[in-house]
């Protein structure tokens, strides 16, 4: 007995997985850089710490 998955459903699942992977990769790039960007914009470590939490 074999499972028959329609092409449309397979394409939809692939699209969702690719979108999720791109989102995870983007967050992996942004999160390490974000504190440095905030510090650059606000000007001091203390104010950057207040904004970062």
Keywords:
2 helices; single chain; 53 residues; 0% strand; mainly alpha
How would you explain this protein's 3D organization?
By secondary structure, this protein is mostly helical. It has a domain at 26-53. It is built from two helices and no strands. The longest helix is centred in the middle third of the chain and has 36 residues, at 7-42.
Structure in a nutshell:
The chain is mostly helical.
Q: What is the C-alpha radius of gyration, as a whole number of Å?
A: 20 Å
Terminus-to-terminus distance = 55 Å
- List segments where confidence is low: pLDDT < 50 over at least 5 consecutive residues: none
**Main sheet record:** none
| Helix run count | 2
Beta percentage is: under 5%
How would you state the average pLDDT, rounded?
A: 84
Helix content: over 70%
* Global morphology: rod-shaped
- In total, the number of strands is 0
Class of secondary structure makeup: mainly alpha
Order of helices and strands: HH
Q: Strands, helices and their partners?
A:
Blueprint: H1 7-42, H2 45-52
